[in-house]
Prior knowledge:
The protein is an alpha/beta fold. 47% of the residues lie in helices and 22% in strands.
Amino acid sequence: MYKNILFATDLLKEHNHLTEKAISIAQKFNAKLYLLHVIELPASFQLAQGLGFTELANPAKDDAQTVLALLGENFNIPLDHQFVEVGSVKEHIFSKVKELNCQLIIIGSHSSVGLHSFLGSTAHATVNHAPCDVLTLRL
């Protein structure tokens, strides 16, 4: 059923626990698991990048790649299954799903009030617009 699974992680404090759940799900389906972290920059950074200041995102991306590599090493997820992108979370998730031919997106949800807050705005957008199945994990 699921051969390729994309786990979109925000690398917050619960990322180890959620990664364990994503790995367990991938193992049950004998699927490949890919990790994706997207750094969504504030509008002011996007404007600066539009003006040619592209180096602004590099320190944050380098830090995220280091954290993701440690996470991957801890859970035996190969480097070629780990991705850090800068830009729109939703667009990068959907792009990776298409590129990797994923049949399932796993994403964490950690908010608690209202519809958008029930899932979180990223999870809500992903659930409503994804080109494949989406599983949300609660913290």
